[in-house]
C-alpha cells in the first residue's frame, strides 16, 4: 500500500501551482469565448435581403420596439427585425454597451461624452441615469 506524504514545505509550492492552473483555466475560457464570438457572424434581415454585419462596422443601434436600426460606419443604416434586447445578447459586451432603453453603442467609436450624451460621428446619443454607472464601469471611469 502506497501512502502520499506532503511535507509542510511542499504546501506553498502546491498552492502556487494550483493558483497557476486556475489562471490558465480562466485564460483558456477567455480564448474559447473569443473564438466562439469570431465564429458567429451577425446576419441581419432587411426586407427580403440578408446582410452580414461585422462588429467593427457598427457605430450604434437604436431600438424601435421589435425593430432596431443599425447605424454603420459604411453605408446607410439598416432597419432590422431583430429587437434591441437580442442585439445586446449577441454583441460582445467588451466592445458594446447599452446606454439607454433605446440605444446600444460601440465603445471604440465613441468620440466624446458630455452632458449625459455620447457623440459618435455627428450623432448625439442620450445616456439614461440607470445605464450611466454601467457605462462608467465599462469605460473604467469614476463618476
Structure description:
By secondary structure, the chain is of the alpha+beta class. It has a domain at 42-139: LytTr DNA-binding domain (OB fold (Dihydrolipoamide Acetyltransferase, E2P)). It has 3 helices and 10 strands. The chain has helices at 10-39, 84-90, 132-139; strands at 42-46, 49-53, 58-64, 67-72, 78-80, 96-100, 103-106, 112-114, 117-120, 123-126. Strands 5-4-3-7-6 form a 5-stranded antiparallel sheet. Strand 9 (117-120) and strand 10 (123-126) form a beta hairpin. The N and C termini lie far apart (63 Å). The relative contact order is 0.10.
Please write out the topology.
Elements lengths: L9 H30 L2 E5 L2 E5 L4 E7 L2 E6 L5 E3 L3 H7 L5 E5 L2 E4 L5 E3 L2 E4 L2 E4 L5 H8 L4
Antiparallel strand pairs: 1-2, 3-4, 3-7, 4-5, 6-7, 8-9, 9-10
What is this structure, in a nutshell?
With 143 residues, this protein is of the alpha+beta class. The protein has a domain at 42-139: LytTr DNA-binding domain (OB fold (Dihydrolipoamide Acetyltransferase, E2P)), CATH 2.40.50.
Could you give a short account of the major beta sheet? Answer: 5 strands, antiparallel
Class per helix and strand makeup: alpha+beta
Q: Estimate the strand proportion.
A: 25-35%
Q: Oligomerization state of this entry?
A: single chain
- Overall 3D geometry? elongated
Secondary-structure element sequence? Answer: HEEEEEHEEEEEH
Task: Describe the structure using short key phrases.
143 residues, alpha+beta, OB fold (Dihydrolipoamide Acetyltransferase, E2P), three-stranded antiparallel sheet
Amino acid at each position: 500500500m502506497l501512502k502520499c506524504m506532503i511535507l509542510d514545505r511542499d504546501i506553498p509550492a502546491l498552492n502556487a501551482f494550483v493558483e497557476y492552473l486556475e489562471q490558465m483555466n480562466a485564460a483558456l475560457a477567455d480564448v474559447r469565448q473569443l473564438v466562439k464570438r469570431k465564429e458567429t457572424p451577425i446576419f441581419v434581415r432587411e426586407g427580403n435581403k440578408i446582410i452580414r454585419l461585422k462588429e467593427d462596422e457598427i457605430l450604434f443601434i437604436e431600438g424601435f420596439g421589435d425593430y432596431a436600426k443599425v447605424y454603420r460606419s459604411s453605408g446607410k443604416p439598416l432597419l432590422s427585425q431583430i429587437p434591441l434586447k437580442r442585439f445586446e445578447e449577441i454583441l460582445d459586451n467588451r466592445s458594446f454597451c447599452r446606454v439607454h432603453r433605446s440605444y446600444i453603442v460601440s465603445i471604440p467609436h465613441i468620440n466624446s461624452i458630455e452632458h449625459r450624451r455620447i457623440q459618435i460621428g455627428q450623432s448625439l446619443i442620450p445616456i439614461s441615469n440607470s445605464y450611466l454607472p454601467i457605462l462608467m464601469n465599462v469605460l473604467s471611469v469614476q463618476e
